[in-house]
Design a protein that fits this description.
With 63 residues, this protein is mainly α. It has one domain (3-62). It is built from four helices and two strands, in the order αβααβα. Strands 1-2 form a two-stranded antiparallel ribbon. The protein is globular and about 25 Å long.
């Protein structure tokens, strides 16, 4: 699956984060925790909503 295909999804899991950030499993879980520390709309362990991801990215761009 390509990054563009993954970014079309509504909810991202660990494998999706690995594709987006081109990282390993443990780093992807760390990124998920960081995203959830900014926003957690769905409250499901190991998954983040696309809007939470966008909030995380936008927050990091402002810093």
């Amino acid at each position: 699956m390509t990054i563009q295909e993954v970014l079309q999804k509504e909810v991202f899991n660990n494998d999706d984060i690995k594709v987006i950030f081109q990282c390993g499993k443990s780093t992807a879980y760390k990124i998920i925790r960081e995203i959830k520390s900014v926003s957690d709309r769905i409250g499901i362990s190991g998954r983040v909503h696309r809007k939470d991801y966008e909030d995380f990215i936008n927050r990091n761009l402002k810093e």
